[in-house]
Design goal:
mainly alpha, rod-shaped
Length: about 100
């Protein structure tokens, strides 16, 4: 009987450990997907800003003006950005704007 109780304890602890590991993996995957979705939304917002500023120029594209407007808007709205990212956003929004016309 003592051997059976010891074996039963090992089985219960093993099942608990497996359940705990599965729960940790599930939480990690959820947090990872939420982070990816947050980054996608942030990029979509930034791209929308770039498209708005480019379309407001009425065909007279001025990269430096758009860049300064984007930097000001991102700082005002407290949206994190990198300067290299701004150039890529402007180029992508410009291509979409020119392709749409």
């Amino acid at each position: 009987m003592q051997l059976f109780n010891g074996f039963l304890n090992v089985v219960i602890l093993s099942l608990f450990a497996i359940t705990l590991i599965a729960l940790i993996i599930a939480i990690y995957q959820c947090l990872k997907s939420f982070r990816i979705e947050r980054l996608k939304n942030e990029l979509a917002i930034k791209r929308s800003y770039a498209e708005i500023f480019i379309s407001s120029l009425n065909g007279k594209f001025d990269r430096e003006l758009v860049k300064s407007q984007l930097i000001d808007a991102f700082k005002k709205e407290k949206i994190p950005f990198e300067f290299e990212e701004i150039d890529k956003l402007i180029e992508a929004a410009k291509q979409d704007y020119l392709g749409g016309n």
